[in-house]
């Protein structure tokens, strides 16, 4: 994940726990370049893949 402060390409996860709703994860991250800390909330996106048939029809 990119740092929102200095745009460095890599960050370190300091703390990780379930958020209050139970459906997402709250992570505290730290940038090794500038030392700033920030919080992210991550949620799984559950979507079935779309299948495109050879005749162009789409199925989910």
UniProtKB/TrEMBL annotation:
GO terms for molecular function: zinc ion binding. Residues 1-42 form the Transcriptional repressor NrdR-like N-terminal domain. HAMAP family: NrdR (MF_00440). This is Transcriptional regulator NrdR. Signal peptide: none annotated. It comes from Acidithiobacillus ferrivorans. GO terms for biological process: negative regulation of DNA-templated transcription.
